Amino acid sequence: MPLARRARRSVDIWPGFVDALATLVMVIVFLLMIFVLAQFFLGQALSGRQKALDDLGREMAALAERLNLQTRANAALEAELVSSRAEKDKLEAWAAGVNQDMASLLALKDEKEAELAAEKKISDEGRAQLALLSRQIEAMRDELARVTAALEASEARDREQKAQISDLGKRLNVALAGKVEELQKYRSEFFGRLRKVLGDHPGIRIEGDRFVFQSELLFQTGSAELGTEGVEQVRRLAATLKDIAKTMPQGVNWVLRIDGHTDKRPMVSGRYPSNWELSTARAITVLRTLAANGVPKDRLAAAGFGEFQPVDNGDNEAAYAKNRRIEIRFDQR
After folding, report:
1. Would the keyword Transmembrane be found if you checked this record's keyword annotation (predicted)?
2. Residue 306, by phi and psi: left (phi above 0), alpha (psi -120 to 50) or beta?
3. Per mean pLDDT, which range of 48-52, 97-101, 252-256 is the poorest?
């Protein structure tokens, strides 16, 4: 039994080794064949790409040449454009000089005509330019003549209008002076008759063209309601004014203006926010009373000045009393 097992273990392995080696050789040969084929096809591809690269290089060279040609052409065009712009600027400057100076146009025309006579040769462009200059000169002369004629006509109209205005002003001044004189006459008559009616009351005085009532004569302190004496005084004023109005011609355009004034001490009552409101309310009260007693409403006007037009700038009771007043003005509208 041990001998039999030893015999089985001593098997010959050489044939298997030869088969494996042969298989390895075949694989190597196969790989070499694949490598050779790959080298062949890679060479073909690389040679094709090289050809494509050469073609592309030639196209790039052609494009570069075209680009150089285009660049030179652009440079030439830019130079021509700069030259054209310079020529345009020269022409514009020349045209401006032509439009601004008539004498330059005439001198240039004479120069062109002298050159034409001396050289006996001039281009069509020069002839057209000379003709254009001549037409421009004639047109400017015609325009100058029209402007001169219009200016002379305007000056003649101005002189005529000034004469009319001067004459109208003189007549207006004469008429105004007559109306003022006539109004002054009725104002004097009105003040004279009013003084007789009202008497020599210490609270009533005449100052220039104004008839002045002290506020205490008409109103209570801080009030815009007429007292009993105030109502009576305003009724007398209305009656006198109506009598005077009956004798006035229709052409005398008069108006009776009532101005309210206060002193500078601030208001303490809550009814009137300031002296402005109080002075205005008092003037309107007098106006309404006059209208209620028959004075035409279109002949009455009222204004309030508060403490801003004093007749006495003192800080005492006498000054305050003078400044608290109602002024009646007989005036022209």
Report:
1. yes
2. left
3. 97-101
Range of the domain at 167: 101-176
Structural contact between residues 245 and 190, judged by C-beta atoms closer than 8 angstroms: no
Concatenating the DSSP letter of every residue in 13-42 gives -HHHHHHHHHHHHHHHHHHHHHHHHHHHHH
Residue 38 lies in a domain: no
Helix/strand number for the chain, H first, E second: 8, 5
The reply to whether 147 and 214 lie within a common domain is no
Measured distance CA(272)–CA(274) in Å, rounded: 6
- Whether 88 is covered by a domain: the verdict is no
Nearest alpha carbon to residue 283 among 218, 202, 201? 218
- Overall number of domains in the chain: 2
Q: State which of 131, 161, 176 marks the end of a domain.
A: 176
DSSP per residue, 162-183: HHHHHHHHHHHHHHHHHHHHHH
CATH of the domain at 253: 3.30.1330.60
Please state, in angstroms and rounded to a whole number, the distance separating the CA atoms of residues 99 and 163.
39
Q: pTM of the prediction?
A: 0.46
Statement to judge: residues 321 and 220 lie in one domain: yes
* Domain match, 149 and 270 both: no
Tell me the per-residue pLDDT of 149-180, one tens digit each, with 9 for 90 and over.
Answer: 887 887 788 777 777 777 676 666 655 555 55
- Per residue in 257-279, pLDDT tens? 999 999 999 887 778 899 999 99
Mean pLDDT of the chain, nearest integer: 80
Q: With respect to residue 4, please indicate whether it lies within any of the assigned structural domains.
A: no
